[in-house]
Amino acid sequence: MSGNTLLLNLLLLLTTSPAEAQTVAQAETRALAGVWSVDLSARPDEPYFKSMRLDLLPDGRLSGSFYDSDIEAGRWTSSHGRLCVAFRTTDGVGPYHTAACLDGDRVLGQTWAEHRDFLFLWSADRPAPSGAGD
After folding, report:
1. What pTM was computed for the model?
2. Predicted confidence (pLDDT) per residue in 16-36, tens digit
3. Which end of the chain is more exposed for a tag (fewer CB within 10 A), N or C?
């Protein structure tokens, strides 16, 4: 979703009834909610993809999964022309802190694992429909 689209949505929110505003907000969150294919490739010649599922709840909480782990303590917000999420997962040893924002039809994110001493930048796209390319 472009910045212009988010600005238009904000203007609609300011000039519409609460019921209409809720419909606009729901349409915006649907753009980020659902299943994503996350590109975690460290090298272009070694593709590595994992699934991410985002469930944006009306009260700003976020649930779902990332890298085969349930999302813990997740939140989402729409502000400054961006729709973003932040959450924690774990590998059983320590926490992974992730933040990501919708960027057009993709998600751009970063994950920090202090106990593994790394910060990883990643991107995600919608998975291809099953049967695509068959």
Report:
1. 0.76
2. 445 444 444 566 788 999 999
3. C
